[in-house]
Design a protein that fits this description.
Elements lengths: L1 H22 L4 E6 L6 H10 L3 E7 L2 E8 L1 H14 L23
């Protein structure tokens, strides 16, 4: 009887863990160091406008847009969104540096 109860409890715990893992959403993030002279709010607005969750974080002197997504599946989609994003909240679309994520930078 005790073995059966232990197995039922273990199965229930495994099911709860699986449900919570699914509920968390994306399993990773992409960090985009916003280039000097560009407005991080404009990049953030573009990413959120594409339906992704994102925040701004200041890390090591960089203003980063941190995008919650699957880095493997969403990398090129996010890169495209950021490439087409304005460089300021005023809508300035001057050409900027190529979109490079923090995990792609050397060193």
């Amino acid at each position: 009887m005790r073995i059966a109860q232990t197995l039922v409890a273990w199965s229930a715990l495994a099911g709860v863990k699986r449900a919570l893992a699914r509920r968390k959403g994306p399993s990773g993030e992409l960090r985009y160091h916003v280039p000097v002279g560009h407005d991080p709010a404009a990049a953030l607005a573009a990413v959120r406008g594409s339906g992704l969750s994102a925040t701004i974080a200041i890390d090591g002197g960089y203003e980063d847009v941190v995008i919650a997504c699957d880095p493997t599946e969403d990398r090129e989609r996010v890169r495209s969104v950021l490439r087409d994003a304005p460089t300021s909240m005023g809508g300035d679309r001057s050409a900027g540096a190529p979109v490079v994520f923090a995990d792609e930078e050397p060193g």
